[in-house]
User: Fold this.
Amino acid sequence: MTISNKHTRRDALKLGGKSALLMSGAVLGTSFIRPGRSFAADALEPGMIGGPTGFPGAELYQYGPDSPEGRAIEAVKEIVGKGTAPKSIKLALSEGSIGQLTKPFPEGAPSIKDLWEKETGITLDIIGIPEGQGFTKTIQDISTKAGAYDIYTLDYNRLGDLAETGGVVKLDAYVEKHRPEWDHPTEGYVGGEQGVSLLNKYSGSYYGVSLDGDFQTWIYRTDLFGDDKERRAFQSKYGYELQQPRTWKELDDIAAFFHRPDEGLFGCTDLRNQGWGYTNWYQRYVSTGSPNRFLWSDDAEPLINSAEGVMATQEYIDSLDYHSPDAISWGWPEQYGNMASGGTAMTCAFSNMPKFLDNAANEGSKVTGKMGSMLPPGREIDGKLVRRSVLWFSLTSAVSTQAENPEICYLFLQWLGSSKIYTWMTANPAGYFDPFQLANFSDPLVMRTYHDYHVETIKETVRRAVPTINYPGATAFHNALDENLMAALTGSKTAEQAMADTEKQWSRITRRTGKEKLVAAIRANNAAWPTILDPLG
Amino acid sequence: MQRSVIFELIRYCLVLIALFFAMIPVFWMISMAFKPIAEWTASGADLTWWPKAPTLDNFRFIFGQNTNALIVELERTAGRAILASLLSSVIGTLIAMVVGTSAAYGLSRYNYGKNLPLALIQLRLFPPLAVMIPVMIMWTFLNLVDTWWGLSLIYGIVTLPFSFWLMKTYFDEMPKEIEEAALVEGCSRFRVFTRITLPMMAGPLASSALLVFILNWSDYLIALMLTTREWVTIPVYMASLSSSMTGQLYGAKAALGLIAAIPPVIFGIAIQKHLVRGLTFGALKQ
Amino acid sequence: MSNVDDTAKPVASGTVEKTDSHFHAYGKNRLGLYLTLPAQILVLFIALFPLLMQLYISLTDWTPLTGVRWPQAYQLWSGLANYADLLDDDRFYGALWRTFFIIIVAVPIEFFLGLAMALLFMDEFPAKRLFYSALLVPMMIVPAVAGYMFFLLFQSGGPINQLLSLALGTKVAISWLSDPDLALAAVIISDIWQWTPLMFLILLAGLLGVPSEQLKAATLLGASPWQRFLTILLPKIKAIMVIALAIRTIELFKIFDTLYIMTAGGPGVATETISVFIFKITTQELVWGYVAALALLILFTLSVIAGLAMYFLQRKKREVAA
Assistant:
């Protein structure tokens, strides 16, 4: 990519003239040359002090001096003026996300990186981290005092663990001073202060800035669900209409109906592998109670070794029947690849699946125009439907204590993670960062990238999503659950054994981590669970 | 030696069978490297052994050209990773060969370093992972993380046992009369080593170097731990070739794998005539 | 392996001095010191600090999650608790057993396949060079890409099942990587594929080193191929066989790259070997004191085994000499 871009740029320069400028729309706003500056569209709206320019609708993402973005930029300029600012900040970022910061979007716009550098004069040095290596590289950097990164980016579940290392900066003072307004009632995080607390706080203090919304959302194939022949066949076989499943039972029926491995079609491909599959166990388990079934009691006693835990686990095992025979070894790359080739009727994935696969620019996808999305299936309890999804992974940034100037790093994150810039960034199809703020869901660019049908689903899914374990020991707790679920899936343990063993291991980890520390964290986590119920009809 | 036609036929059949099994994954990699994205993970009835619509897109992609089917940002092109792999593997091999050969000669002829055989076996036996944390701390302290010289150094160290042991067996096997004659004629000891002994060892040196080079070239784990971006090697870079558009970029991985097979194969062909002779480990002496 | 006794144990020096007479006639020469010094320094460099540090933190509950830097790990002193835990860790034993299982299965298969191939290549036949080069290709493929290719080959709708279907005449749809036993088999198959060529190469080198006159003489005397193998070839290449087996055993003990990319140790822990186990607890659970204890335990055990092996080889050699 980089090489070819350079060529285009150089060619454009040589040609000069208006046609070349129009042609090079995609590369406008790069640090190399900014022909866009001369256009009228480049001017900021009156009263605005910064933000992207150069495309219709750019004013939506511009900000005035008294906004989270404006305050961040002004504060950075002040530090730069004092001469204490570093020349660059080093941002660790998962490789798949980098495009959203470096690739201009939409046509005519600068990239995020260029805009930041233009407004502050501080270079943004992005260091790609291979998928799955975020936590390892972060811990390596902290424990060896390497100082390779100023800002770490990793999944929100690890924030507690990360804070305990002492390798990241407590952001409370900065938050108070620069007011990021994450809990803004119409633009901020879903759930207001509670949402902020869930994503950015650990043990009452700010340590992270959320940059992602990995609410697991359900996808189905509209071409299959809308096919008259299929509808008739389903109706005569199951006695009810083929439609988006409302309960796990219906999901199982529909998936079994469409499961035709000989024709290269699986019923459902929500993940069953190590490290990822348990998010789908979560959804089945937490919906067994109304309004929720917790993993832990408020006194830090595990609740999973129960009739409901066993039932969810058994369903989770039985559902392998309509998965790929290789489901246990498939991660999301295989899942996305299979969906792109039209290999499944339904799946549950990160909310970005339609952004990438229902995408006319993606010539590799056979399902463009054939995707629909739906709420998570649930369970009927006391005349209401309990539908639950799960928030898992979700990239969050934290500032390293080794950073030359932590305040600048925080200010960059405040700028990037506040509603205007974040909305503009999340709409960019070149990376993984997904919408999670209220402002994101009503934005025209986001709607275009994520599709109208899906944005509505994401918003409603967010309201029904429970958090995963995000307190100290998160990795160990999840690994213990994971290990036992895998044993159940491969038949080396029964559902009962798996839950009993998980409970045993969880209790041991609890002892090691310190129960008092956990009780507070579990209560905070439980308090953030949704209580919304759906009508049956 | 009289051989029957039947015997020859059986031999050919067996060789062909062996070749068949050896070639399945190799063939799959080569074929994958030229497959368009739609054929990468096709399964069952759609499975294609030979690309239906062969393309060079995979190669273009890893070298940074925009290909329509793969609308993925590549932050780095494969060129840099190939350079990193070549540099660290070649220098690592040089370190291992120079240090290992000298030490083997010193022990074989002058009986210095009697602790080395066991120490080096222990070094090779030991899973590098088990000391990765201290090594990471050392490498950070010495500013060696994500540098080609840091990577070369660790490669040279972990393959030192191979070069040492291989060369030592050859030196032990080699008759000493020629060297002794030269010594008696007043040639300096160091000259004897460099001008008389080493040239006679060209074959063993070449085949040992090939083995050591393959081991360095193959490494995934050490580079994963000790590089961050500038000097990421081929295997680490390959692991990062995936995207949410298409999942794992198998075609791109295979294309890179195919390119990565070239240096060892060329090396192997270049020293082919030494290869078999060079690996007797001196074990035939007895 | 004849060199072992020259060096590891000075006891054997009686025989050594005779053969090395001229070099030793000049007495100990500084050149030997200079030549071995770099290797000594490198060994010391890579061993000294890591081992001391591992020894230190293995006696503590140090993990980066505590916020304590490693030099201060004494604050988390736990004595021998890590070692006690290790001896009581089923996952550790499982990983150890699986590693040995892979060695026990893969090494003999690689050995016999390699030997069979080497025997086929002993005499000249048309296009021998070409076949020989082609058979060495698997070990030149980067293990990482081999891992990805095997992952695809072993998919249930993948090429291996398709070949099996062709061969057996019925549709085969085995989920190799989703079944604990079959996943282990798949891992072993991938290792056999990649490293049989090395066995072949080493053993062929050995076989070709056997003087052809002896073989010709035996043939003239009417010895069958089998007799020729048993009486002439086998004794001559015994030592090289030991070396080939030793190299593969040592390398297989550390098996990681291809396996990790194919299965990541899964499903569950079905293919979790020692290296994968260490990798996981190092990068995910971060119990680094525990990893250190594990490292030292492995080092100690392996040293004892290696030391014993060298001792016995040397004694045998002395018996032969006597």
User: Anything to note?
Assistant: DSSP finds 14 helices and two strands in chain B.
